[in-house]
Amino acid sequence: MTGDHYFTAEPSTAANPREVEFSVAGRDYALASSAGVFSAARLDPGTAVLLRKADLPAAGTTGALLDVGCGFGPITCVLATSAPSATVWAVDVNARARELTEANAARVGAADRVRVAAPDDVPADLTFAQIWSNPPIRVGKDELHQLLLRWLPRLAPDGVAWLVAARYLGGDSLHRWLAEQGWQVGRTASQKGYRVLRVTR
After folding, report:
1. b/e for 32-47, b at 16 or more Cβ within 10 A?
2. CA-based end-to-end distance of the chain
3. What are phi and psi of 93, to 5 degrees?
């Protein structure tokens, strides 16, 4: 065992490249992955529920979209292919995850519309039409709350955020906490123990 987690900035685990295949909205994806990133061997079940149950951006969507905690890039790639006129920002603290997301954006023909960045490298004045995240619940409640307090305020006035969280990891308490912060929160789906939350101002 190593000390690496998917939220380690510079994983020391050997990469062990692999490919992850999945389908969303009738499109097949085959993305590069490797050890040392979140859900390296498969599309995470929570991410799968999010992409299945949330409202993917319409083809005519423009502006900036944000994937918080992009991992190897499955949400980023789905957003980029669903909304070919939008720019997708993919944010992760994990350098290996960012490299994989860049490679996978190229795989799906969206390298020119995907901006991969460490959190501190996202322009401070940028707001987002949509924010998507399977947030890193396992970093702990305090860090999770700080992460959401950092990014959700950057939602455009008429924007929408889509989050997924496992019920057994506190999905319902996250719902309550978001509402306590003044956000409008609706649970739009519950499947396989995961809650899909729609968050607006």
Report:
1. bbbbbbbbbeebbbbb
2. 43
3. -75, -20
